[in-house]
Design goal:
CATH superfamily: Dynein light chain 2a, cytoplasmic
Order of helices and strands: HEEEEH
CATH architecture: 2-Layer Sandwich
Strand content: 15-25%
Structural class: alpha+beta
CATH topology: Beta-Lactamase
Strand order of the largest sheet: 2-1-4-3
Distance between the termini: 18 Å
Number of helices: 2
Shape: globular
Helix content: 25-40%
């Protein structure tokens, strides 16, 4: 079993995975910015997002970026940030 991705590692991973991303923020379920650019948490144009029950990823991309590809990358990473709990094992 591997540990969940941390917010800081998620930022570094996305920066390498998708060079079109200009800035990234990881926001917790309570609205706290856990890592990245806090100005993204207030909402702005040119952003792509992905959400799980526990995290919101916000990425600012330039005009002409492939938003669908960026969204896919964010969705992959947000699942790693918030993995589903493992089923209970029987003794």
């Amino acid at each position: 079993m591997t540990a969940a991705l941390t917010p800081e590692l998620a930022l570094r991973y996305l920066a390498e995975l998708d060079p079109a991303i200009e800035a990234i923020a990881v926001v917790g379920e309570d609205g706290t910015v856990l890592a990245g650019d806090p100005s993204l948490a207030v909402g702005a144009g040119g952003c792509v997002t992905a959400r799980s029950a526990r995290h919101l990823l916000i990425a600012r991309v330039p005009p002409g970026a492939l938003d669908g590809l960026v969204r896919h990358d964010l969705e992959v990473v947000v699942r790693e940030l918030s993995p589903a709990p493992l089923p209970a094992q029987r003794p």
